[in-house]
Structures are given as C-alpha cells and as structure tokens.
Design brief:
- By secondary structure, this protein is mostly helical.
- The chain has one domain (2-321): ABC transporter involved in vitamin B12 uptake, BtuC (Orthogonal Bundle).
- The chain has twelve helices and no strands.
Length: 330
C-alpha cells in the first residue's frame, strides 16, 4: 500500500514537472505563433529559435540543476545529521562562486566552459574541507564555521569583481542571486556530466547514510568508516553544487527546503529520499524560474529572490509543524 502511494505521488509530481516544463517553453516576452507540437520538427524561424536556443536550455537546465541541488541538500542533511545543513551553509556554494569568478576574471576561462565548471567544483571541495578542518566537533559550531567561511569567500569573490580590469566582469554579480538567463545548449552540455557524477556518488553513499544516521559509533561497528563516508559525500556534493553554481550562480533555500518536503512525504530512507529530492528540486526550480520570468514582464526578477520568497516561509511552516525524523526505516 505504501509503495502504491509513493508511485502515485511520483507520477503526480512528474506530471506537474512536465506541465511546468511545457509552460517554460511556451511563456516569455516573445509570444509564439506556432504550437509546441509543430515546433518539435521545426527548429528554424523566430519561434523555433526562441524555443530551442533560448527557452529549452533554460528549462532543461532548471531540471538538471534543480535535481542536483535537491540531492545535494538531502546528502548534506544526512551526512551532518542536522536539519539546517545545506550546501550554502557549509561553504560549497561560496567556494564554487569564488572559483568561477577567479577563472573568469583572470581570463583563464570563459563562462560556460569546462574549465569554469572544473574550477567551481575544485574550489567547492576545498571550501567544504576547510570548514571541516576548522569546525569544532560538537553543537552548532560546524554550521557557524560554515557561515563564517562562506562570508569570507563571498567577500573575496566580491573584491575580485571590484578590482578586476576585465570588461564586463561586474555583470558576474548576478551570481549572488542566481539566474538561468545565461544558460545555453552548450553550457547545459558542459555541466550535465559533472552533475551526473555527483548523482552517482550520492546514490552510492545513500544506503550507508541510513546506518550513519544512527551515529558515528554505531555505524563504525557495522563496518562504515565515518570519515571516509563524509569525504566521499562532500566530493559528491561538490560536483552537484559546483557545476550548478558555475552556470547559474547561488540559488538560495532550494537545497535546504527540498529534503524537508521529501522527508515529510516519503520518510527518511536516503535512497528513496534522493529520488524524490531530484524530482521535487526540478519541479520547484522550474516553477521559480517561470515566476521570475513572467511575474513582472518584461522585467526579470533574480531567481534567488523567488526561491527565498517561496522557500523561507515554507521552511518556517515545515519546521513549526513537523519534527524531522533522522532514523531511516525501509
């Protein structure tokens, strides 16, 4: 009965995501004069170019990046056994932002390049392990250390933008709020393999996270190396977050909110959580991007503002009405 309910839930959310995807292709400043069905075989002309060169990579990017950030949030909360853990709070997003701006402002790489994504992933890994190294072992010291390191890295990125002589570098300030507006078919192709690697690593560690949720001592006695598991999880999250940030900037609250919704719907077992986190993350990012583009046409709202406006109140409601359960039951 439980599996039937979850299958129905999966189909429902998938249907919503497909509807939002179609609306993303259909909606925008340029009004289409041809149906999407006809455009499946016609990629030329104003309508074809608008859909396949501008809106399609944006919608596809929302699906891929939303899935990656949703999974990263679930892994972060699982590996640190804390409902407040989130890629932004543990230094991953700010590290990736610094790496992206460093290579672009120095001229070492262009936006949307593979080098750009690689630098973002590398800096995300360094930032997360730096937080690990500096943080005390008990209480909320880890999160506070993450916030402090993130603030330092964000300030360094802002300083790099301010002093860079490279023309147009100031436009990189959009990384603070996130935007899918610069996505192209090429940039989506560049980041997709990185996010795929991150997803594979995340599913690889998911079963062990169920045992790890019982505590480091208990997991150690059943053959799990907590330090190695944490390191592998951080690398997986770095691929997910680093590639995403390199393409669209930092998107607030998505990685924090999604796991809470999923845990409420399907429980805390991590493999099941990751599947639904990917689906709900994609759906929420598609919705947020659609709202960002259409609420105040022809003006576009920064995506991070929309996710904050949606995510913060929803998270407050969830935290006040539900107690997170951290022990996995299959």
């Amino acid at each position: 009965m439980k599996s039937v309910k979850q299958a129905a839930l999966y189909i429902l959310i998938s249907t919503i995501a497909l509807v939002l995807f179609a609306l993303s292709l259909r909606s925008g400043i340029v009004h289409l004069h041809t149906s999407l069905w006809n455009l499946l075989t016609h990629h030329s002309g104003v309508d074809g170019t608008t859909v396949w060169q501008i809106r399609f990579p944006r919608a596809l990017g929302a699906v891929i990046i939303g899935a990656g950030l949703g999974i990263a949030g679930a892994i972060a909360q699982g590996i640190f056994r804390n409902p407040l853990a989130e890629p932004t709070l543990i230094g991953l997003s700010s590290g990736a932002t610094l790496g992206t701006i460093a290579v672009i402002s120095s001229g070492a790489a262009a936006y949307g390049s593979r080098t750009n994504a690689e630098a973002a992933v590398l800096f995300a890994i360094i930032a997360a392990f730096l937080v690990q190294l500096l943080a005390p072992n008990k209480g909320y010291g880890f999160l506070l250390t993450g916030i402090a390191v993130s603030a330092i890295l964000t300030a360094m990125a802002g300083l790099m933008i301010a002093i860079s002589p490279k023309p147009g570098i100031q436009s990189l300030s959009f990384w603070n709020f996130g935007s899918l507006s610069l996505l192209t078919n090429h940039s989506v192709q560049v980041i997709a393999p990185f996010i795929e690697v991150g997803i594979i690593i995340s599913f690889f560690v998911s079963r062990r996270l169920d045992a790890y949720s019982l505590g480091e001592s208990s997991s150690h006695y059943i053959g799990i190396n907590p330090r190695r598991l944490r390191a592998l999880a951080i690398v997986g999250m770095a691929f997910l977050v680093g590639a995403s940030v390199s393409a669209v900037g930092s998107i607030a609250f998505l990685g924090l909110l999604v796991p809470h919704i999923v845990r409420l719907l399907v429980g805390p077992a991590h493999r099941r959580m990751l599947t639904f986190s990917a689906l709900i993350g994609s759906t929420l990012l598609l919705l947020a991007d659609l709202l960002a583009r259409t609420l105040f046409e022809p003006h576009e709202i920064p995506l991070g503002l929309i996710t904050s406006l949606i995510g913060a109140p929803a998270l407050i409601i969830l935290l006040r009405t539900q107690k997170s359960q951290w022990v996995a039951h299959d």
